[in-house]
UniProtKB/TrEMBL annotation:
Pyridoxal 5'-phosphate binds at residues 105-106, 133-136, 218, 221, 243, 274, 302. It comes from Flavobacterium glaciei. Belongs to the kynureninase family. This is Kynureninase. The keyword Hydrolase applies. GO terms for cellular component: cytoplasm.
Length: 425
């Protein structure tokens, strides 16, 4: 498609967009009396209007039924989480039995590492990416220390080549082969939070398995954003937060994937709790743990229904739309934003360097932009003029044009505000 940097062209694209109507499904903050241009869905998604209905339903059931809401509400609480199995499986490319919801992201990664990080004297190393999200870094350090290893010995980071912003696939595979028989686990972010690079999860998973290691993925920035086929890629496990691209609210519940090949492995350790116990016998209060078959068998505690309600509102919306439609718009609107940035770059003195890969297969709903010659004052200008974006030191802004609630007109207007911020500094 040949793009144009005009308001008329942007409005035309919106008129052709099948998802444009979903903007009205969300509540936007306002700045200067106008709804914002929201680019931070990669940190916290906007609130869907339907969320209140789902939460109010739980509140009303609690008020009117109290403890009986576990069994007699319209969506009984004791199996509330089961309503996620089908829609979540479609979002991440899994069997319904392979997904569940519980806890929060880093908690779940720690719990999954109980099962899938089983170091021995000779096979104990973990491969991750350089500049992984800090929570993952802390998790790796504490896990290997817990098992009696030194982080500097057990954690192997795949680094970017000098002068490059992204990690090459061949370097990931080469590092896996190099570590070889010492490799216990590969655990990488499916989308790097800083650069927006999407990793080739299929190829990396196969390489890790060839080396004899388990392979898991932190999908915090991938779930609801990237086309995933976790079952077919033979991924061992994965987890993701729900409050970024899936708009479930701040700090909300996490999703988990455990491949069905592990469901019947009684030798695979896990930390057990009563909500993972045999559903039909759970309230008999038996002393011996008998796990639910599938990913639900990794659950530990009674689930926080008030947290799950907004998440269910969101996955129901995803189920209406489907990932294919989301990704089609994602690719077009991200490409249009890239075009706008290049156009504005030609009109101002500053230089924009997009450090997210230009190959659409290696990026999703994020462009990370290095603003040469600009500082924090430009970010402050954007925020004061209704563009909610994200700043990362030293001078990177992350822009996430989420297809559910950003428009092509937003992309054009952002370009004009960005240009004014540079010219008028």
């Amino acid at each position: 498609m040949t793009f144009e940097n005009t308001l008329e062209f942007a409005i035309k694209l919106d008129s052709q967009d099948q998802l444009h109507k979903y903007q009205d499904e969300f509540i936007f903050p306002q700045v200067n009396g106008k709804k914002v241009i929201y680019f931070t869905g990669n940190s916290l998604g906007l609130q869907p209007k339907r969320t209140k209905t789902y939460v109010d339903e739980v509140m009303n059931d609690w008020a009117n039924l109290a403890v009986e809401g576990h069994f007699y509400s319209d969506k009984p609480w004791w199996d509330y989480h089961e309503r996620f199995a089908d829609p979540l499986s479609k979002i991440v490319g899994a069997l319904p039995s392979e997904v569940t919801v519980m806890n929060t992201l880093t908690v779940n990664l720690h719990l999954l590492m109980v099962s899938f990080y089983r170091p021995t004297q000779t096979r104990y190393k973990i491969i991750c990416e350089e500049k992984a999200f800090p929570s993952d870094q802390y998790m790796f350090q504490s896990q290997v220390s817990f098992h009696g290893y030194k982080p500097e010995d057990a954690i192997v980071e795949i680094k970017r080549r000098d002068g490059e912003h992204n990690i090459r696939l061949e370097d990931v595979v080469a590092k896996i082969e190099e570590v070889g028989d010492e490799l216990a686990l590969v655990l990488i972010g499916g989308v790097n939070y800083y650069t927006g690079q999407v990793f080739d999860m299929k190829t990396i998973t196969a390489a890790g398995h060839k080396a004899g290691a388990y392979v898991g993925w932190d999908l915090a920035h991938a779930a609801g954003n990237v086309k995933l086929e976790l079952h077919d890629w033979n991924v061992d496990f994965a987890s993701w937060c729900s409050y970024k691209y899936m708009n479930s609210g701040p700090g909300n519940a996490s999703g988990c994937f455990i491949h069905e090949k592990h469901h019947d492995n009684s030798e695979l350790p896990r930390f057990a709790g009563w909500w993972g116990h045999n559903k039909e016998r759970r309230f008999k209060m038996e002393q011996t743990f008998d796990p639910v078959h599938g990913a639900d068998g990794w659950q530990i505690s009674n689930l926080p229904i008030l947290s799950l309600a907004p998440y269910l509102a969101s996955v129901d919306m995803f189920n209406e739309i489907g990932m294919d439609a989301l990704i089609q718009k994602r690719d077009t609107i991200t490409a249009y934003l890239e075009f706008i940035l290049h156009e504005i770059d030609e009109e101002v003195d500053s230089t924009f360097e997009i450090i997210t890969p230009s190959n659409p297969a290696e990026r999703a709903s994020q462009l990370s932009v290095l603003l040469h010659g600009e500082g924090r004052s430009l970010f402050d200008y954007l925020m004061k003029n209704g563009v909610i974006t994200d700043w990362r030191e030293p001078n990177v802004i992350r822009l996430a044009p989420v297809p559910l609630y950003t428009s092509f007109e937003d992309m054009y207007l952002f370009g004009q505000i960005l240009k004014a911020g540079i010219i008028n500094k």
